[in-house]
Amino acid sequence: MTLPPHKRNRQIYGFPVSPKWLCETAASLLAEIEPDVPAEENAYVNHIYSFRSYFGISSIGTASEILLPGQIVAAECMEGKLVTVLYIFSDEPRNYRQRPTQEQFDKITKFMGREPQWWVDFVNWVQRPVFSVLTES
Predict the structure, then answer these.
(1) Going by C-beta distance under 8 Å and a sequence separation of 6 or more, which residues neighbour residue 90?
(2) CA angle 104, 50, 79 (to 5 degrees)
(3) How far apart are the first and last CA of the chain?
(4) pTM (predicted TM-score)
(5) How far is Cα 26 from Cα 101, in angstroms, rounded to an integer?
(6) Which end of the chain is more exposed for a tag (fewer CB within 10 A), N or C?
């Protein structure tokens, strides 16, 4: 996986999702992973746990992202001017090194029914140094 050109803000690779879908799907996955846990009560708190456990991808997370020119998403994925994104990994060195294997990537892509895309994080991070993920230890 080649990273996009460096930007001031973190970039993430993932899928736009609606908050409702995120919680409902997390509840369903949690019910499969841990049938004794009351999924409806815990899915919101454990939605990342559900996705990480089900797909075996430790770098999964969620974020609110900027909709860039040319990106089109369903209205239910929008919260104001931000898009809810379930991301597989980011361009941050530690998270990038934990990115999924090809098999894990294929599994989540098939589950989602579409390819992920790059998003620019909304949070205005302090200026990040330019780095090469592949050369950092």
Answers:
(1) 10, 11, 12, 13, 59, 61, 96, 121
(2) 100
(3) 18
(4) 0.80
(5) 21
(6) C
